[in-house]
Amino acid sequence: MTGMGLDISPNTQTRLAARARDLGRSIDAFLKRLMNESGDLAACAPHEAIPELPVWHLGVRGGLHRRDIYDEVG
Amino acid sequence: MKSVEPGVIDANILVYALDGDAPQHAASRALLNAARDPANSLFVTSQILAESYSIVTNHRRVAVARTSGEAIGALSDLLAYPGIHVLPSPARVVIGWMELVERRPVTGGAVFDLQLVATMKANDVGRIYTFNTGDCEAFAELTVLTPS
User: Which of B24, B41, B47, B62 to mutate to test the interface with A (most CBs of A within 10 A)?
Assistant: First the structure.
């Protein structure tokens, strides 16, 4: 984890990491989710914790069929 | 924020939601934004996330490919939405897609459609949002929806 450090016990850190891994998320994403779901914390930071997806200008080619994505590998 | 029926979001939806130039962008974005509300549940799988990553970082799939860091950042942002859930891929998914192949003996990359369907079935999810409805027509057990 980069950025601000947290003073939490190794046991809590292990549990956090395990729970995040079970949900297929990074610890950062897992904590953001917990904050979003917590009424108390949400009151402190209503929507800032939910990030906005970027808007890119990709110029998608083709229909994005799954078979095409894999067939072009290699 | 609008209410949506729970369902899997296909990779094409994720990519179109990120591509402001795509005609499907607004509808895809609106669907994903519904997952900013924890009352809604939309699902992704590891396969779908990897496919989305593959598309946006591949210059053969997009004119302006993004970097690895940009792609991971966008997917991480999506996973922070309280209504987005990652479906697990239990071991029975293997038997599931093998049984689907017996029913529908596809070859090549088409097997990955079956793997996704098997993952959905293993998690009792029967609805998928996609713009490639034709790819799912063979699976009568699925409800296929296009965002609008």
Answer: B62
Q: Are B10 and B129 in contact (CB under 8 A)?
A: yes
User: What is the distance, to the nearest Å, from the Cα of residue B110 to the centroid of all Cα atoms in its chain?
Assistant: 15
**Chain B, window 85-114: residues with a beta carbon less than 8 angstroms from a chain A beta carbon:** 85-86, 88, 108-110, 112-113
Is the reported ipTM for this assembly greater than 0.90?
no
pTM of the model: 0.80
Determine the distance in angstroms separating the CA of B71 from the nearest CA of chain A, rounded to an integer: 10
Residue range A3-61, pLDDT digits in tens: 667 778 777 788 788 887 777 677 777 776 676 666 555 455 555 579 999 999 999 99
Picking from B22, B76, B79, the nearest residue to A60 by CB comes out as B22
In order of A9, A14, B73, the CA distances from A45 in angstroms are 25, 26, 21
Nearest to B147 by CA among B55, B22, B45, B21: B22
